[in-house]
Amino acid sequence: MKNLTDSFVFWVTGHPPGVSGLIPIFSNKSNKSNVVLGVLIFFGKGVLSDLLDNRKQRILSTIRNSEELCGGAVEQLEKARARLRKVEREAEEFRVNGYSEIEQEKMNLINAAYQNLEQLENYKNETIHFEQQRAINQVQQRVFQQALQGALGTLNNCLNGELHLRTIGANIGILGAMKEITD
């Protein structure tokens, strides 16, 4: 490296290192700046190129990573949107089915209420009919009892002992004839 530096000093000054003679190339600042700039470009070109290449690779890597992340985020967003659409469809189906189920349940309750009313009406009519039959039977029994009592009273008044015995004998004869027929 020392030889390289000595060569540079010789090239710039025109004198070997350690000799103090300046050539007019360094007489103004502009030329000095050009020389320094040339030296920087000559020696720094590789370093600067490496730094820029490294920076370029890091930027490209960051861009690739960002694009991958963006792609993943877009994919997740589409999946989330698809799930949202599915959930919205299911919610709409539940809402529609819920309304139809409510209507069906309402109709079932109305029908059950009508059936209960019909049964109650039938029970009421049956009860009325039963009570009417019972009342008719009671009236018939009373009429029969009164008629029987009246007939017995009339018979007792009209019949004397001898007529009474003849009637009983005739009835016994009729019952005996009926018994022979059935045997």
How would you portray this structure in words?
Helices cover 90% and strands 0% of the residues. The chain has 183 residues and is mainly alpha-helical. The longest helix is centred in the middle third of the chain and has 130 residues. The chain is rod-shaped and about 185 Å long. 0% of the residues are buried. About 3% of the residues have low confidence.
The assigned structural class equals mainly alpha
Helix percent band = over 70%
Largest sheet: none
Computed CA radius of gyration, to the nearest angstrom: 67 Å
Uncertain segments: 21-26
The total count of helices amounts to: 3
Approximately how much beta-strand content do the residues carry?
under 5%
Q: N- to C-terminal separation?
A: 159 Å
SSE topology string: HHH
Keywords: ATP synthesis, CF(0), Chloroplast, Coiled coil, Hydrogen ion transport, Ion transport, Membrane, Plastid, Thylakoid, Transmembrane, Transmembrane helix, Transport
Family: Belongs to the ATPase B chain family.
Function: Component of the F(0) channel, it forms part of the peripheral stalk, linking F(1) to F(0).
Membrane topology: Single-pass membrane protein
